[in-house]
Amino acid sequence: MAPLSVAEARCKVLQEVAPTPAELIAVEAAHGRVLADGLVARLTQPPFDASAMDGYAVRSADLRSLPTTLELIGEAAAGHPFGGTLGPGQAVRIFTGAPVPAGSDAIVIQEDAERDGGKVRVRNGDLDRTHIRPRGLDFSAGAPLLAGGRRLGPRDVSLAAAMGYGQLSVRRRPRLALVSTGDELVAPGQTPGRAQIVSSNHLGVAAMAEAAGADVAFLGIARDLPESLAAHFEKAGDADVLVTIGGASVGDHDLVAPVLTAQGMALSFWKIAMRPGKPLMFGRLRQTRILGLPGNPVSALVCARLFLVPLLRALLGLSLDGDAAQIKARSAVALEANGAREHYMRATARHGNDGLALVTPVRSQDSSLLSPLAEADCLLVRPVGAPAVPAGGLVPILPLDF
């Protein structure tokens, strides 16, 4: 099987992906969730003409000649409206957020008036219409304000509640099962023995998946034995996505694909023309999509960014238009011509003088080194066969964070 291009592999991973079912949740728990359907306002906001200032509700007709003295007949505060109607020569003390009393059409701010017992003397009458927020200034009932397929941020949650919603229909979080593989791995916090290393890749992949909206279940470390791998894979149950880390190549100890194939997986591909991350596997086992990430730390995390994140976004019904959109930048250093594999160089970006980011590759592109990857904030993309680039030349980049 010839290696696929990154674009071809991405297309196969995203083929026939349908959004997860909708579920109803409390609006208080909706931050970060994805709306299944658009929301139409159930209420009008504000529901009444409201004062935007502290001052006095008056009739503008009474302010034609200033200064003037008005009779103070009551008070209106937020949640405590004035129940009567203003007549000629009358005023009501009013506070921000209070309903404007019937008969009033203007607010005199308190700095332009002074109270004397049951009277108020208005010195200045430069009335500002913005001192009254008219009913429906923000939105009216029936207005479509939040579209389906939108990930709800803090402002969206506030808006949904103000629109009259106590519960929201959102996409169920994709269920992701995660398995690390390898006899050489020990759990974080344990002291590695001879020829052992700490299992850390799953932490970064899990964090990335959770940030993309998934519910992640780590199923532990499977040993390089068919029965251990099979037992761990069985734990995935009806997960939407099963992610394996390591063992997805074709060496004697790479057993992930054979074990999954024996369980019924239809293998789509197992290598792609990119670096880091050539040994990437993808297949289907009934309703579960299986993504086999390479064991090298950088390869695992870069492949998760390029393939797992878009898959989870598709399962949530999110638009993929901007997910893989590359940003134009300038290379701070000269770059060599690229070969037959698309290269995703780890790099750091800083603001350039012309408004474009100025990017510098990190100190090492070795796919086993985590510390340079932690320094990086973007991937500098070198297409297949890309010519050499001089310092200051244009290059595409992809943010590591999303």
Descriptive overview:
The structure is a single chain. By secondary structure, the protein is α/β, with parallel strands linked by helices. The protein has four domains: 6-20 and 173-315, Molybdenum Cofactor Biosythetic Enzyme, Chain A; 22-43 and 141-171, Alpha-Beta Complex (Molybdopterin biosynthesis moea protein, domain 2); 50-133, Molybdopterin biosynthesis moeA protein, domain 3 (Beta Complex); 327-399, Beta-clip (Beta Barrel), CATH 2.40.340.10. Helices cover 17% and strands 30% of the residues. It is built from seven helices and 26 strands. The chain has helices at residues 6-14, 154-162, 201-211, 226-234, 256-262, 297-315, 370-375, and strands at residues 22-26, 39-40, 50-51, 55-58, 68-76, 90-94, 106-109, 113-116, 119-122, 132-133, 144-146, 167-171, 175-181, 185-186, 197-198, 215-222, 241-245, 266-269, 274-275, 281-285, 288-293, 327-331, 342-351, 357-361, 378-382, 394-399. The strands form seven sheets. The protein has a six-stranded mixed beta sheet, with no helix packed on it. A six-stranded mixed beta sheet has the order 16-13-17-21-20-18, with helices on both faces. The radius of gyration is 31 Å and the shape is elongated. 38% of the residues are buried. The mean pLDDT is 94.
By secondary-structure content and strand pairing, the structural class works out as alpha/beta
* CATH topology (level 3) name of the largest domain: Molybdenum Cofactor Biosythetic Enzyme, Chain A
Number of DSSP strand runs: 26
How many DSSP helices?
Answer: 7
Q: Return the CATH class of the largest domain.
A: Alpha Beta
Question: How are strands sequenced across the largest beta sheet?
Answer: 7-4-6-5-9-8
Low-confidence stretches: none
**What best-fitting shape do the alpha-carbon axes yield?**
elongated
Number of domains: 4
Which strand-content bin applies to the residues? 25-35%
Mean of all residue-level pLDDT scores = 94
Distance between the termini: 32 Å
* CATH homologous superfamily caption of the largest domain: MoaB/Mog-like domain
Radius of gyration: 31 Å
User: Per CATH, which architecture of the largest domain?
Assistant: 3-Layer(aba) Sandwich
| Major sheet attributes | 6 strands, mixed
Proportion of helical residues: 10-25%
